[in-house]
Amino acid sequence: MTNETALWASNEIQKIAASLVDVLGQTVIDDVLELVSYSEPGIALDLLCDRISESEVSLSPDLRARIVATGSAMGLDSTVSFLVDPDETRP
Description:
mainly alpha, 6 helices, about 70% helix
């Protein structure tokens, strides 16, 4: 992952995390943001996805797409694969 992609991903993860504070709680979001601040966007995204999966929260299609796009740009397709709607991947 290039530095430019890592910076973009870090910024995107911060925005995504901020939009989920009411759902996942401030502690989880603080942990995600701390990882981003330590230049660990991949681990931050992994933690965010784990907590989303555990909470079984319903995400808007736009937010789901943003998380998937971020993970894909980072080469973390397997991390975000649970968010991909199987109907959207069929031709």
